Amino acid sequence: MIHLAGAVLLIGGGLLAGIMAEKEIKRKVKMLYSTIAALNEIRGEIAGCQTPLKEIFYRLAQQPGEQGRFFAALESTDEKPLRVRWEESVNRHLTKLSSESRDVLLNLGGGLGQSLAEEQIRLLEEALHRLEDIYTREAEQARSTAKLWKRICPGIAAAAAILLM
Q1: Which whole number is the average pLDDT over 112-141?
Q2: Least enclosed by CB within 10 Å: which of 1, 56, 96, 130?
Q3: pLDDT value of position 84
Q4: How far is CA 47 from CA 35, 53, 63, 70, 108, in A?
Q5: Which of 27, 29, 24, 38 is nearest to 105 (CA)?
Q6: Is-contact 165 14, C-beta < 8 A?
Q7: 149 to 15, 25, 135: CA distances (angstroms)
Q8: Residue 46: which of 127, 115, 103, 105 has the closest Cα?
Q9: Residue 165, pLDDT above cutoff 70
Q10: How many CA atoms lie within 13 A of 71 on its CB side?
Q11: Nearest to 74, CA basis, from 64, 63, 84
């Protein structure tokens, strides 16, 4: 009886591990999606109203989670140039993004706030195009990987339970 209860707990733990792995994988894709949405908002503000970046960052800093903390770090009033604050903020707050996505964002940070509005819009559109391509790829990969983890973890736990009986 104890062996059966242990087997059930082991399989339940495997199922829970699979669900947690799936959530983490989906969280990474969601972060990339929200980053793309924020960059679209920045592009729209610059193109439409030519809103200063500081005001845009302040508004985006009101978002919950890492995305909000990312933009809150950009609106700081320290002496560092925006390029340096952008790089620090990407490396500190957007760590769940793939290195390819972070590279695109780091390259974008070098041109924001240092050029005319038209040039900033061009840089944002290039970065958005690349990030959307990455998103498409990573979302598909995340779907298949999440399914795999959801199936493998309970299977491994079941095999372990059988071996322990």
Answers
A1: 90
A2: 1
A3: 87
A4: 18, 12, 22, 22, 16
A5: 38
A6: no
A7: 9, 10, 20
A8: 115
A9: no
A10: 21
A11: 84
Tokens of 89: 């903020």
Q: Which two tokens stand for residue 74?
A: 């950009």
How far is CA 34 from its chain centroid? 7
User: Residue 165 corresponds to which tokens in the numbers above?
Assistant: 């009986």
Q: How far apart are CA 148 and CA 14, in angstroms?
A: 13
Backbone torsion region of residue 52, taken as left when φ is above 0, otherwise alpha when ψ lies between -120 and 50, otherwise beta: beta
List, in sequence order, the alpha helices (H) in the chain.
Answer: 2-48, 53-60, 65-74, 82-93, 99-109, 117-164
pLDDT tens figures, 75-103: 776 788 888 888 988 998 888 888 999 99
Q: Of 42, 51, 56, whose CA–CA distance to 108 is shortest?
A: 42
